[in-house]
User: What shape does this take?
Amino acid sequence: MKIIDLINKDTLSLSFEVFPPKTETNFQSVKAATEEIAKLRPAFMSVTYGAGGGTSKYTLDIAKNIKELHGVPTLAHLTCVSSSRGTVKEKIEEIAAAGITNVMALRGDIPASMENNDRSHWDYQYAVELVRELKASGYDFCIGGACYPEVHPESNTQKDDILHLKEKVDAGCDFLTTQMFFDNNLLYNFLYKIREAGITVPVIPGVMPITNAKQVERAVKLSGSFMPQRFKSLVDKFGNKTDAMKQAGIAYATDQIIDLFANGITNVHVYSMNNPDVAAKIQSNLSDILGGNL
Ligand code: FAD
Assistant: This one.
């Protein structure tokens, strides 16, 4: 099932993101965690892809398992920046052979070892090239792209970032998923600006429940996200109390999602990663809201 058809329904829904194991050793535990999340029957689940290619094999194994065993539509992430054209072509064939029809086309973060290289020799510089390649593959993929309500860290201005986003969408993205954010007004402003720029595809907001204080630092480093005072106070108060922080972080994410639904969003992507208990708690907090049609 294509994600574009799922999220265009007039029903409120959640989707969840998981990540594949790094090695064979923890394959079974990751598989079990993703199966627990699949049992919640989300609209779809996405499976990330290691930028260095290290976990790429497992992305498909996990995505295929969720789809075949649990009937949950899956979205396989694919990055291109540190790969050759040949490798990417092989990956595209593998995704198609696994019967996966939804692909998140990403550039990937530039590995530190490549940062100072002459980029003109790289096979890929930007995600738009991967989108074009997926379109040209002959497979009828539903293609997603990443977007950044708070501007991608490499862009000098939001105007530039949105211009490049438009190019990526015009190349063939069917929908966009956002980087995490902790202040919904940033998302609403972003949506206004991209619509004004002529980007009309559905945008799925990504919400990350922060359930421990260490995650805050990682999230800010990774995404550069703005932390509202309300959120900082919560971390100050509960950051050193494991259970309290988890409860407060889940409540904060739940509030964000309710506000998004109340303002016209129909699908929210939850970065609950491989934590079935976090995914289940968010879903149960929203049970009556998710149960009712619009
Ligand atoms: P792009 O769309 O190529 O954009 C990257 C930067 O280049 C932006 O600043 C953009 O404005 C600029 N740009 C684009 N085109 C041009 C152009 N023609 N000229 C000049 N500048 C240009 N990473 C992983 O490794 N694995 C994952 O599974 C993964 N999943 C993600 C899922 C989501 C929803 C998000 C938001 C991010 C994810 N990432 C993942 C991180 C992502 O790979 C990084 O943020 C990466 O730095 C950018 O990827 P992109 O696809 O957005 O790149």
User: Anything to note?
Assistant: The chain is about 50% helix and 15% strand. The chain has one domain: 3-293.
